[in-house]
Amino acid sequence: MGKSHRPQRMGEEMRKILSDMLMRGALKDPGFSEAMISVNAVDVTNDGSYARVYITALPFSKDGMDDQRKKDILAAFERSKGHIRTEIGKNLKARHVPELIFKYDESLDYGAKMDSILDKIEIPADDYDYGLPKEEDEAADSEEYFDD
pTM for the full model? Predict the structure, then answer.
């Protein structure tokens, strides 16, 4: 039996609904006022019973996102879980709304960390090869093919 696209479609619709709720300010918990929150993805299990909601947040202050702030935002989502499921149920028009599991998406932080590490690496300009043929090799190759 082939794999269904229903969980993917359902996850994308849930992501849109939750993003819209955050944008409209429909979630009144004070934990949501600490940062600009984005819903990156929603992965729904094949049977539709669970949905992992991956979120990221950009703080309004210059302090950055520490572990405590991440926990506070996840706690705010846990407190609002019932309201979120109700709104998803109204807009999704599904018989069953999956149980929501909120996760902080570390991929952006990991990518930023990798960028900073790569920026620190100093490679002399002469060491760049890029896999391109050198000019003298290119001229020798072209003479072989056009021999009269």
Answer: 0.72
